[in-house]
Amino acid sequence: MIVPIAVPIALTIAGSDSSGGAGIQADLKTFSAFGVYGASAITAVTAQNTTAVTMVHDLPPPVIAAQIDAVFSDLRIAAVKIGMLSRVDAIETVARSLDRWQAANIVVDPVMVATTGARLLDPQAIDVLRRQLLPRAAVITPNLPEAAALLDSAPAANERDMQTQAERLLALGAKAVLIKGGHGAGAESVDLLVDAAGAVRFAAPRIDTQNTHGTGCTLSAAVTAGLAKREALRAAVARAKEYVSAAIATAAELKIGSGRGPVHHFRQ
User: Is residue 220 part of a domain?
Assistant: First the structure.
């Protein structure tokens, strides 16, 4: 007799990466690596590889909403990760959908620019993202340029600046901010988690590699997986940081593409 196994389920709402290294594809791989069942709602289809994004096709808001409704009406969603939302109407649609289903454990990764440098968010949509999604988030996961864009300021130059910017983002309504230091300098790559209880530092040796495609998506998806498994936020972030660091360190084993290759989601 087969006994069904209850598994945690997470939903990713994001864009599709045709090369498989970032976006929806990276999120689903990460969920699987953490033993979490992944569902998805695609917000945009991109034509991209490890060297460039050549086209972006945004899906109509009713299609985005229908995907979210279909998933929530049937699956017990324990956590939600939000990635690429390039337009105002998509952001507003997702915000209404989350409220309609009373979604919990929302992780917002404010994707603005691809690893290859292509802009993925309309500049006029930044304010809507700030107002509509940050207050709904259990945690937001901006990198240094994204945090600066959300605050209309210069990128943080050190950890003190990172904490100051994270505290300013908290004031905009997010319950917690994980500001990522991958774009910084120094021997360590330092991420800061800041919430009402204070700040926690997560550091790992900085790895000299060009295989960083999808790192931001992968980290936020790993945090989402932890929350879906009912881990406390700090524990989920600690595991996510360890996972992504190992995925970057072993990425060269994959030899995929001629540009910025993907991280190794299923590293041994």
Answer: yes
